[in-house]
Amino acid sequence: MAELNVSVVAVDRNVWSGVAKSIVAKTPDGEIGILPGHEPVLSLLVNGVVRIEPVEGPRVVVAVHGGFFAVDSDNVRVLAEVAELGSDIDLDRAQAALQRAKATGEESPEDIEAARRAETRVKAATSITAAGLHS
Amino acid sequence: MGAQLRVYRRRIKSVQATKKITKAMELIASSRIVKAQQRVDASLPYTLELQRAISAAVSRGNSKHALTTVHDVRRRAAVILLTADRGLAGAYSSSIIKEGEALNALLREQGIEPVPYLVGRKALGYYKFRERKIAASWTGFTDQPSYENAKEVAGAVLADFAKKFEDGGLDEIHLIYTHFINMGVQEVRVRRILPVDIVEATEAEASEKLDTKVFPLYDFEPSPEAVLDALLPRYIENVVYTAMLLASASEHAARRRAMKSASDNAEELIRTLARRANQARQAEITQEISEIVGGADALSSASSGS
Q1: Of A14, A27, A77, the CB nearest to B221
Q2: Any domain includes B188
Q3: Could you count the other beta carbons within 10 Å of the beta carbon of residue B66?
Q4: Which residue from B111, B122, B183, B215 could staple onto B56, CB 3.0 to 4.6 Å apart?
Q5: Is residue B237 part of a domain?
Q6: Total domains in the fold of chain B
Q7: Which CATH architecture has domain A4-86?
Q8: E strand or H helix that includes residue B80
């Protein structure tokens, strides 16, 4: 069966790479799912989570900030300024950061940005544990 | 112990202490070069992919982007200098500053007003001492720059680039940094980062490196223009980040070299001082012997004479 070669690359390191069955990402126009044989796409990503279904092992969830991704002939490259594996995120700390961000309110654009980032991280961390429960 | 000998011994001790320090700094710098190089390598995949994506977007989108068009009238240019925060790195910072002076002169000749943006305490010190006007400066991260730092610098120049000339807007942006070629060779490079004009070069480069001749017919979402709009600022940030990483590797290499020659000099100095100390000691002994012999001689001649 056809597979996707996926690599998730952050500015300063390779976050994850491997073969996958499918990948779901969030673009400004909405969610997009990529299966093997997809047409070439180059799209921006909104800050959020990218879900990768590897051929082996549990689902991989990556929190992505400021990125884009390119698909061509079953090679998927996700590039981001900041990319973190859901399994690497400390849920308690992420939640604390979210609480803090919510407490400071949404006065400046930076605050809103911080709150969004915190939320994404929490989402990534929780969905990885949820996926862990199902499998 | 003779006074001369004591002075020599004291100097040897002090030079030995200095040598220990320079040796330690040399070792630290060598280990940091390796780390800095690893960081350069780690940032490479992102850089290549970004260049590829931009080339693809440019080849598809036919619109002229604000960041790629050369201004008709060039009146003001930013000059970003990447220097070190700390000294003891030989000519590392001063060669950057020197190159900056040369570029400033060149720009003025063409009727363009150079505006300095300084990174690193050394450049800041140089400009402050001469009481020159500085557009912006950043310090405290040159030996280990993070992407956040690069983003800050790139963001500041991009914001100024977008302004109108009357409000302090810029027509071009030049970056002066030290390129790390290998452990032994680093060279100062001047690069115009805005307006971006390397698009076609990167296309060839990227396809060469990634081993694909033609770009696939990407479906751009939301549109080629929107993708380009979002990616070009990232590209500038990435260029600054890469330059910072290379500069920090070069800084450590320059420091290692400077500290190595300092250690070697100390070694040499210790050797000559030890020789002189030995000479002084020998002279002292000879003198003592001749004093004793002289004394004994005088005694015996005095007793035989009486």
Answers
A1: A27
A2: yes
A3: 13
A4: B215
A5: yes
A6: 1
A7: Sandwich (2.60)
A8: strand B76-82
Distances (CA, A) of B179 to A100, A119, B175, B248: 42, 39, 11, 9
- Tell me the C-alpha distance between A19 and B83, whole Å: 43
CATH number for B65: 3.40.1380.10
Q: Is residue B265 part of a domain?
A: no
> Does A21 lie at the interface with B, CB-CB under 8 angstroms?
no
- Residues of B within 8 A of A44 (CB-CB) are 221-222, 226-227, 230
Q: B46 to chain A: which residues are within 8 Å by CB?
A: 9-12, 79
User: What element of type H or E holds B175?
Assistant: strand B172-180
C-alpha of B38 from chain center: 17
Chain A environment of B52 (Cβ under 8 Å): 70
SS3 B82: strand
Which one, of B254, B286, B260, B276, lies nearest residue B82 by Cα? B254
- The whole-angstrom distance between A129's CA and the closest CA on chain B is 29
Any domain includes B179: yes
Residue A29 contacts B where some CB pair is shorter than 8 Å:
yes
Could you report the per-residue pLDDT of B133-188, keeping only the tens digit for each?
888 999 999 888 998 899 999 999 888 888 888 787 888 899 999 999 888 889 99
Evaluate the omega torsion of the peptide bond into residue B222 and state whether it is cis, within 30 degrees of 0.
Answer: yes
Whether residue B61 contacts residue B228, with contact meaning beta carbons closer than 8 Å, is answered with yes
- Residue B204 CB neighbours (<10 A): 10
| A28-84: pLDDT as tens digits | 888 888 898 888 888 888 888 888 888 888 888 888 888 888 888 888 888 888 888
- What is d(CA B100, CA B103) in angstroms, rounded to the nearest whole number? 5
Cβ contact B248:B142 at 8 Å: yes
Omega cis (within 30) before A36: no
B201-B207-B210 Cα angle (round to 5): 135
Region of B211 on the Ramachandran plot (φ > 0 left; ψ -120 to 50 alpha; else beta)? left
- The residue ranges of DSSP E strands in A1-135, in sequence order, are 4-10, 14-27, 30-34, 41-45, 48-54, 60-72, 75-85
- A15 contacts in B (CB within 8 Å)? none
User: Strand A4-10 relative to strand A75-85: parallel, antiparallel, unpaired?
Assistant: parallel
Where exactly are the structural domains of chain A?
4-86, 89-134
CA distance B268 to A75: 59
Q: Is the pTM of this model over 0.90?
A: no
Q: Give me the numbers of helices (H) and strands (E) for chain B, helices first please.
A: 6, 6
- Please give the Cα distance from B214 to B70 (Å, whole number): 27
